[in-house]
Prior knowledge:
Radius of gyration: 28 Å
Shape: elongated
Number of helices: 1
Largest sheet: 5 strands, antiparallel
Strand content: 15-25%
Strand order of the largest sheet: 3-2-1-5-6
Mean pLDDT: 84
Low-confidence stretches: none
Helix content: 25-40%
Order of helices and strands: HEEEEEEEEE
Structural class: alpha+beta
Amino acid sequence: MANPTTTRHHGQHGFTLVEAMITLAIAAILFAWAVPSLQDFIIRNRMSTEVNTFVTSLYVARSESVKRLRNVGICPAPAGATTCAGDTNWNQGWIVIADTDGAAGFNTGDTILQQNSALPSNFQITNTLVSITYQPNGRVAPLNNTTFTFDNCDEMANSRAVFVATTGRVRTVQLGSSNGC
């Protein structure tokens, strides 16, 4: 007779094939639902990063103009440029530049305070200005309010607008669906 304390019952533990298939099907449905939301989240965060980078450049230009008692501007410029591009293509990147030589406008004799790289290919900034200049009193030239519109060409993230008042103050607003590019 076997000792009841030493006898072990070995039963099968685990999942049946049907249980495993149902679990896999539920996981696939949840994954298919989560991936687009995750992609949208990533693109929205990237848009926020690009807008915040631009707003930071505006703040740097304003504070440096007051600190240096000189005009400080922001203008489109490709990576590695030593002066403004002279066009309205803000997508190529931009520089914050201090007018240190006293010559009219921004040129190679001026000091670059900040260099910003180009936007990702699916983002776009729209504005008709070739530069925006902060004066030593913190005000903006040209002396009218201006708006920079940030769009996502993939139309997954909402557009954003950066408003710059003549007083130099900056405000951002979410606009709604992207216009596309």
